[in-house]
Specification:
The structure holds 2 protein chains of 2 kinds. Chain A is of the alpha/beta class. Chain A is built from 6 helices and 13 strands. Chain A has a single domain, classed as Rossmann fold, CATH 3.40.50. Chain A starts with a strand and ends with a helix. Chain B has a single domain, classed as TIM Barrel, CATH 3.20.20. Chain B is about 35% helix and about 25% strand. In chain B, strands 1-4-5-6-7-10-11-12 form an 8-stranded parallel barrel, surrounded by 8 helices. Chain B is globular and about 50 Å long. Classes of the chains: A alpha/beta, B alpha/beta.
Chain lengths: ~210, ~260
């Protein structure tokens, strides 16, 4: 029986994500584990994550999951979420600079300190926390059935800057326009939390579960 | 652009939603999962559950409630009330809460906020601050932090305290005006603006909502990032959807359902 592997490397609460995947999974099993042997048997993998990138990469390395994820992403669909998206790029400037998995060329940078608002303008804060619209920049199997400019739930202070626009699947605007969804070959990743984004988010997870890249 | 958030607040007592006026005349208002599902369907952006159960021995009931809600609700929710230790934080997050709200425990030991944020990430640590105006008439406005439902003064200046809490690791602040709470006379927008202009993290306004105009004032004049309200939604005066339509018509950016593709 095919399964969806949620990579559990101790970075954050996987409860809602696992529940949301289970709801979409139908007959597919959802396996939450750090065991590479079990993950290798899964048909598709999800890399979640919250917290700091240094601790995240350190845990992936300690559990010998870094090389594993790189290798697995060549042969099966991989979904990165939030920090699990940021570690897919080459490098993050968070925590004084940390090299990441390098599956998608580019880097991760912090939002600039927002300027004081002009009259009538919204005062912006960092973290970027709450619901924002995601504009789809290219057709992708994961956008199937999801209206363009749908709302998704974000919580982050850093964002991805892919080197090539061809890896940008969707964008949102805060202090400026940034990549909210990225992808390359078997890999797709979102800065926002689909598991917290109501119907649109559930549909994305559903699309991922059926994705045959 | 980022939407302003509308957040219904549910008081929970021994696994049931309750409503009352200032903790008196408390009546049963239903099953948390049902009530949460109703607000989710109306377009609530997040939910806050405040556990007011008197006895700590009833804690397992709260965890069961949080688990049930997490299984059925796919928007973020915060749980507060009686969060005193990292073990409390962990238990609520493992039960499925997205964020926990810390109030009195932060006053007793500010480093608890740092410890919790360090372990679980700033994104899930909300610090709740209850503030009360203490300046004399004709003096410039000043607010102090109170605990125990507004009965116990701490001597801490509310604006300074909020800045300290952000330094300690609060990812978000939930600010309640104890002068306005339960009065339905509107948020203390002066208090909100004093904090919002001085802190870098999102601010949730609470205390005093009696009408949709009040929500608008909290967001537009108070510059809050989110508004929390209880009675206008619980008493069926307005749905969350009506509140959003009202705010959108006044130029506030809120999350409305997308038009069909």
């Amino acid at each position: 029986m095919s399964a969806i592997g949620v990579i559990d490397y101790g970075m954050g609460n996987l409860h809602s994500l696992a529940k949301a995947l289970e709801r979409s999974a139908g007959s597919q099993r959802v396996e939450v584990t750090y065991d590479p042997d079990k993950l290798a048997k899964c048909e598709r993998l999800v890399l979640p994550g919250v917290g700091g990138v240094r601790a995240c990469m350190a845990e992936l390395q300690r559990l010998e999951l870094d090389a594993f994820v790189r290798e697995q992403s060549k042969t099966k669909p991989l979904l990165g979420i939030c920090l699990g998206m940021q570690v897919l790029l080459d490098h993050s400037e968070e925590n004084d600079g940390v090299d990441a998995l390098g599956l998608i060329p580019g880097r991760v940078v912090r939002f600039p300190d927002p300027p004081a608002p002009k009259p009538g303008e919204q005062r912006l804060k960092v973290p970027h926390m709450g619901w924002n619209k995601v504009h789809q920049r290219q057709p992708h199997a994961l956008w199937q059935g999801i209206p363009d400019a749908s709302w998704f739930y974000f919580v982050h202070s850093y964002y991805a800057e892919p080197t090539s626009p061809e890896h940008v699947l969707g964008e949102a605007t805060y202090t400026h326009t940034f990549a909210a969804a990225i992808g390359r070959d078997n890999v797709a990743a979102f800065q926002f939390h689909p598991e917290k984004s109501q119907q649109a988010g559930m549909m994305l997870l559903n699309n991922f579960i059926q994705w045959e890249p | 652009m980022l939407a302003k958030r509308i957040i219904p607040c549910l008081d929970i007592d021994r696994g049931r939603v309750v409503k009352g006026v200032k903790f008196r005349d408390i009546i049963d208002a239903g099953d948390p999962v049902e009530v949460a599902g109703r607000y989710d369907a109306q377009g609530a952006d997040e939910l806050v559950f405040l556990d007011i159960t008197a006895s700590h021995e009833d804690r397992p009931t709260l965890f069961a409630t949080v688990e049930q809600v997490a299984r059925q609700i796919y928007i973020p929710f915060t749980v507060g009330g009686g969060v005193r230790t990292c073990a409390d934080v962990r238990a609520l997050l493992s039960a499925g809460a997205d964020k926990v709200s810390i109030n009195t425990a932060a006053v007793i030991d500010p480093d608890f906020v740092t410890e919790a944020a360090g372990r679980y990430g700033v994104q899930c640590i909300v610090v709740a601050v209850d503030a009360k105006r203490v300046n004399k008439r004709k003096e410039p406005p000043r607010w102090e932090v109170f605990t125990h439902g507004g009965r116990k003064s701490t001597g801490l200046d509310a604006v300074e305290w909020c800045a300290t809490m952000v330094e300690k690791g609060a990812g978000e602040l939930l600010l309640t005006s104890m002068d306005r709470d339960g009065t339905k006379s509107g948020y203390d927008t002066e208090l909100l603006r004093a904090i919002s202009a001085n802190i870098p993290v999102p601010l949730i306004a609470s205390g005093g909502v009696g009408s949709l105009d009040h929500l608008y004032e909290g967001l537009a004049e108070g510059e809050a990032d989110a508004v929390l309200a209880a009675s206008i939604f619980h008493q069926g005066t307005h749905t969350v959807g009506e509140a959003k339509e009202f705010l959108a018509a006044r130029g506030i950016n809120v999350r409305l359902p997308p038009r069909a593709a």
